[in-house]
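One chain is below:
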Amino acid sequence: MANKDPLMITDKDEMRKWSRSMRAQGKTIGLVPTMGYLHEGHLSLIQESHKQTHLTVVSIYINPGQFSPTEDLSTYPSDLLGDIQKLKSVPGGVDVVFNPKNLYDYGNNDNGCGVGLDQEGGKVVSCVETGGMGHETWVRVERLEKDLCGKSRPVFFRGVATIVTKLFNIVEPDVAVFGKKDYQQWRIIKRMVRDLDFGIKVIGTELARDDDGLAKSSRNARLSPDDRQKQRMVKMIAKS
């Protein structure tokens, strides 16, 4: 049987007010940050949050700060109504869905992405770097972001660290739960929390896989059968 609908919050100040009122009642809060298009891997993070805290907040926000203008922000999958139904199916449900429209200042650029921003003097920029009065404050975990995925996606981990910092400052959770599928990201968030003295416990959960062995992922869900087979072959070769 489905749980009751979670409280939907879109405003930053309202989200912060809710969290502070719950903490004043002695409640602990868990945060599960997502970009939506939820799958069983995300739902397992919520179950872990239930074990750790009284209340659980799931954020659903496609973060433009981790995309460069040449990447796939405009085609990233989204299904908010489907996500809500999935959240209601989790034993215990969730208490709040934080679904802000925008967490950045885009200056004079209304859509925040891709308007004359593909390159700036040869420097790769993100979808929210507009110059002038646009967003210009970023959080970086310098050494850990350099290798692996950071080599091919130079703005990605900077964008992740910045948006997670924003979510921590808005939701003010006691615990935050991330999947170890994105292992480099999880390590970066743990280091950021340590280095910046956030009073938040960061928990990493084990990888959830589909029956064919591929990690449950919003992007993997969009692969064709042929592409999934190619991905499996790549992983088999890497292990051999």
Remarks:
- DSSP finds seven helices and six strands in the chain.
- The domain at 7-208 is CATH 3.40.50.620 (Rossmann fold).
- Confidence is low (pLDDT under 50) at residues 115-121, 234-240.
- The two ends are 45 Å apart (CA to CA).
